[in-house]
Known about the structure:
WD repeats lie at residues 28-61, 75-105, 237-278. Keywords: Repeat, WD repeat. This protein is an alpha+beta fold. It has a five-stranded antiparallel beta sheet, with no helix packed on it. It has a five-stranded antiparallel beta sheet with strand order 10-11-12-13-14, with no helix packed on it. Strands 44-43-47-45-46 form a five-stranded mixed beta sheet. The radius of gyration is 33 Å and the shape is elongated. The two termini are 47 Å apart.
Amino acid sequence: xxxxxxxxxxxxxxxxxxxxxxxxxxxxxxxxxxxxxxxxxxxxxxxxxxxxxxxxxxxxxxxxxxxxxxxxxxxxxxxxxxxxxxxxxxxxxxxxxxxxxxxxxxxxxxxxxxxxxxxxxxxxxxxxxxxxxxxxxxxxxxxxxxxxxxxxxxxxxxxxxxxxxxxxxxxxxxxxxxxxxxxxxxxxxxxxxxxxxxxxxxxxxxxxxxxxxxxxxxxxxxxxxxxxxxxxxxxxxxxxxxxxxxxxxxxxxxxxxxxxxxxxxxxxxxxxxxxxxxxxxxxxxxxxxxxxxxxxxxxxxxxxxxxxxxxxxxxxxxxxxxxxxxxxxxxxxxxxxxxxxxxxxxxxxxxxxxxxxxxxxxxxxxxxxxxxxxxxxxxxxxxxxxxxxxxxxxxxxxxxxxxxxxxxxxxxxxxxxxxxxxxxxxxxxxxxxxxxxxxxxxxxxxxxxxxxxxxxxxxxxxxxxxxxxxxxxxxxxxxxxxxxxxxxxxxxxxxxxxxxxxxxxxxxxxxxxxxxxxxxxxxxxxxxxxxxxxxxxxxxxxxxxxxxxxxxxxxxxxxxxxxxxxxxxxxxxxxxxxxxxxxxxxxxxxxxxxxxxxxxxxxxxxxxxxxxxxxxxxxxxxxxxxxxxxxxxxxxxxxxxxxxxxxxxxxxxxxxxxxxxxxxxxxxxxxxxxxxxxxxxxxxxxxxxxxxxxxxxxxxxxxxxxxxxxxxxxxxxxxxxxxxxxxxxxxxxxxxxxxxxxxxxxxxxxxxxxxxxxxxxxxxxxxxxxxxxxxxxxxxxxxxxxxxxxxxxxxxxxxxxxxxxxxxxx
Length: 810
């Protein structure tokens, strides 16, 4: 029996579940990180985008050119990058680096129907067959798992069971909850443990429409084909020399397209079990593929930021667009006449494809619609010298392809139609008819928000013999491009760098556009826009000597600022309520920073839970006097809360989406519920700090009756000085105190006061009275034992040297 998710944690000691708060830095309903995958609704009215920010969004994309797509739904539930997404009937399926596959209701009501967690590592890709009722997921450790969409029963296809397995290569199954049948596991020879997973991964999947064939692209540079019904290996295709990153099967399951990190796209005839064409148009890894239904035109994109269209029968490739960042996904819509493109940026571009770049079947359909009056006449094929060159080159093969395509636009390998699409010499690499001296230019599609200038669109040499060199015209024609971006949406700069300031309350972040913001994490929002400045230089400018125990870890891996909280560390920092702006409270009233953030993030849940289960009882820390004066989150920028339930399944909810029905212990971690509902915090010993008060050598001052003291770490030295002066006055040594600031000028006492003043030193250095005991220990004492203060009568002529404070090295 294979259940990697369950077995991996079987023998590990239980650890307290952590809680993460993810802040929003924009009110716009947009992604804040790269878009990894796209899915188009069957009627092309909706586009689904899966992002590195852990969200999937649905966009209404109208048919009017230039109309801005509107976000019509947000699928919030994953807690890590969403790597792939697909539509299955009226459902949406997504997979993530959080090791889960989620099935959503894709209609107007957005809700998660099921979460399955059978993978032991990142889930990278999906494929499905509606006819067979099957879903396939794959990821790291070469795990390929199929699911019955009716029962959600899981079946392991890869890695293959060990040789000791009895009988067939079919692997064990698990149900939707992740439970395993121990007897079946023993029969498989695994003794309830998963087979040893080789250190390789699967980054691409494809499944035939009938559900009888699954293709998996591996980091071994192989393409493995499997029968999902029996679990048996069908074949292994060799030819690529690096990771296989994209796969595409035709509807009949006879032709397979593959893109690889070896910079090539290969077309495979599965009947012959060999590669019949190789496209060498890219200069770096190929990450995504799309094709017309008959495979007559192939669209490819990848790490070189280039989007190519390759006409398989004409044996030509055209550079359609160059994006500002590597292309992660492309998707065809509107019957093959529109192309959506996403990159490692948060934006998505939509292009309407001219007639000459569409597949043969699409062209035939458009021609039929034109003859019937449903479409205006297409003039793209007779528009200028560039179109003439496109029309003349390979016209005979194009005509042959058009004549050979059967009804429905499908082609069969080995038939006349298959040869027309593949080319007359299928065993040879795709050759381009590139003529460096040919006249005319076809303008390049360049998204105006991303690219400065334009590139010439020319036919490319696609042979690997390196005999031809592609040159770029430094003065491209300024004619209107044949293709131009009609849609561009979702642009929002994600966060790419952060610095936590010394007060452990403020954080500097820099977004992908270079803008730096100053955040207050207790308020959950940026409080100052600092512009395009160097974040390290700004950190030095904002530095002040202050030591606060680290109570959170921060990350920006989702393109947004996230704070991770774990007990008891998250309760290790506190400050005085007066320092947080709370008025009319005792000056020694303290606020725990971790508890303050938890109560703010879970305020909606706590009050709803109290109303439903605690008869509306007041909540400590939330309903106390002055609680409304503490920092709190903005209604316009509500954060998201992420944790795991008692079974280990991750969940994510907006701070305003809690209903109070989330049970403590089952959904909300027990330590969080104790802190938010009852104000009970785990005891942390380090909240106190010991220090010693001794007279300076030669000062002539007496020793105090009690020289070793214990006080809160946040206690300011001013109170230590006042205590010392009070105790000396009891010993008939009257000394006044004056506040010493963070500059040497503040050491001088007031003139003509007629008083003698107390001077405190530590390690021979003057002590600023505004510092806390913890700060003195960190920046001046610099040792782990008790801090020692020396006191003496202040002599304006012999002031103690002032400390030099510098930003500690990371």
